[in-house]
Amino acid sequence: MKEIDFHNLQGNPAELIGKQWMLITAGTKDSFNFMTASWGGLGFIWNRPVAFVLVRPNRHTRRFIDEQESLTLTFLPEQYREALTYAGRHSGRDVDKVAATGLVPMLTPGGLVSFEDADLVLECRKLFVTQMQQQDFLHWSELTPRFYAEDNPLHRLYICEITGCHVRG
């Protein structure tokens, strides 16, 4: 992987996250977990490039995110769609997702866990965390039936500074 300036990143963030999906990975080389996400965004806040991600409290990966200062967002080629689907449907509490998906863990230049199979890896440092609350939604009734039923608790929102941007070179 080669490092590039985030401002030179090619592609549409909405396509990258919403259609290609990403893995959110946190932890250490000896103890980490990852999950698939298709919600989030990339942009510029507080005079720095940022990513924002949303994670439900019942996701095993959230414990790892909360325990660490940093995380990675990993974007894989389309040939890994099945692995992404698996990682989104199974919990690291119950299965060894690395073994089940065949993904190959690696450490980024910043010492964070990602995967050798990636086309793009973003190293991210948490800057802001908040728990979504029902009273903060302006159109709650539009969102509740589809996204926040009883078995789908509200997300925690993380805004993270992008500290490293690495592409397959």
Notes on the protein architecture:
The chain is of the alpha+beta class and 169 residues long. The protein has helices spanning 13-20, 60-67, 81-89, 97-101, 140-147, and strands at residues 2-3, 22-28, 31-37, 40-45, 48-55, 70-75, 105-107, 113-115, 120-131, 156-167. The mean pLDDT is 94.
Summed up, the helix count is 5
Strand content: 35-45%
Overall 3D form:
globular
Which secondary-structure class do the elements indicate? alpha+beta
Query: Over all CA atoms, what is the radius of gyration?
Result: 16 Å
Indicate the low-confidence ranges by residue numbers: none
How do the SSEs run, as a string of H and E? EHEEEEHEHHEEEHE
The description of the largest β-sheet is: 8 strands, antiparallel
Mean pLDDT: 94
Cα end-to-end separation: 5 Å
Helix content: 10-25%
Number of strands: 10
Q: What is the oligomer described by this structure?
A: single chain
Which helices and strands appear, and what pairs or packs with what?
Blueprint: E1 2-3, H1 13-20, E2 22-28, E3 31-37, E4 40-45, E5 48-55, H2 60-67, E6 70-75, H3 81-89, H4 97-101, E7 105-107, E8 113-115, E9 120-131, H5 140-147, E10 156-167
Antiparallel strand pairs: 1-10, 2-3, 2-6, 4-5, 5-10, 6-9, 7-8, 9-10
